[in-house]
């Protein structure tokens, strides 16, 4: 355990040291400018002290972000629109909806690609090409079109999450469904197994490790899609809305707190998928 924690703690410590150095470097010009305007002389020690306590710093100090997180998650009731828990739930709802749709779409496309050569040759290039379009360009178009036909709320954000999350599932499942050796496929044929039986008895079990690895990527990128989907809508709720309002009013501490909440939420979702991965493979008699 100690050997595992030491490298992690070393990296965290290095990040914190670098962070504190840049807090001073980036925030010091404002402190000196304020002192010059007031006609006051200021020492280096005073500059350093004030860089860590600015109301709207260029780069917030870690303790400012922690204080903001505590205030918006613990001190505020979760029903309050100032609570990060409230905003995280809004984003999480769109994330899970998009992740579910993206996973289903990805699995269906992968099955079609593996079992039909024409679909493989015609559809797979378009699947790959779809991910070359920047999501920040696609998101406003999706939202505008859906709003025009009366669809609003979680669905537009969920569709953006679907657009991002289906791709890793398709790629992973195609790889997984094609992973059984040819000799095993031939063995199933000697047993006169149908394509359906071969799929459920051989291909699908072989694809499970690939599927869960893809799902870890998909759940994280679904969260990114939900947040991006909140930005062009001028949403009033969600982590994207917190980022947007923070940028409007120069509330950098609020922005960083929302970013850390998003990162924590993504880590939690990936961990849940990882636990499901371990449980399923253990049930199948394999090692995760």
Automatic annotation (TrEMBL):
It is a multi-pass membrane protein. It is found in: Cell membrane. PANTHER family: ABC TRANSPORTER PERMEASE PROTEIN HI_0355-RELATED, ALKANE SULFONATE ABC TRANSPORTER-RELATED, MEMBRANE SUBUNIT. It comes from the Bacteria. Belongs to the binding-protein-dependent transport system permease family. This is ABC transporter permease subunit. The keyword Metal-binding does not apply. One of its GO terms (biological process) is transmembrane transport.
